[in-house]
Amino acid sequence: MPAPRKYPDELRERAIRLVLDIEEETGNTTAACRRVGEELGISSDTLRGWVRRAQIDSGKRPGTTTADAARIRQLERENAELRRANAILRTASAFFASELGHH
User: Which residue segment(s) compose the domain that 3 sits in?
Assistant: First the structure.
């Protein structure tokens, strides 16, 4: 279960929009994050991370999207579960093969 978010989604979306608007005018993401962060009481580093994630998710920046990352985590969990099941089946198969060989 993910940790609770410190900032509501509406605030995050509004802050991202403000940064992107200012960045479009000035061409400076760092200054935009600093300015919006000060106005809204959000760390500029946190805001920069949100903006980067939004740009990746919208396809404006290269990287793994949030949806793709979630799917990868799900597939990795399934893969680990299948590996454990296969190990159990191999062990059981070897056990039963040796039992059949003794009788």
Answer: 1-63
Distance CA 52, CA 19 (A): 11
Phi-psi bin for 43: left (phi > 0), alpha (psi -120 to 50), beta? beta
Q: Are residues 14 and 57 in the same domain?
A: yes
Q: Convert the pLDDT of each residue in 51-81 to its tens digit.
A: 999 999 999 999 999 999 999 999 999 999 9
Compute φ and ψ for 10, nearest 5 degrees. Answer: -60, -40
Q: What is the pLDDT of residues 11-62, one digit of tens each?
A: 999 999 999 999 989 889 999 999 999 999 999 999 999 999 999 999 999 9
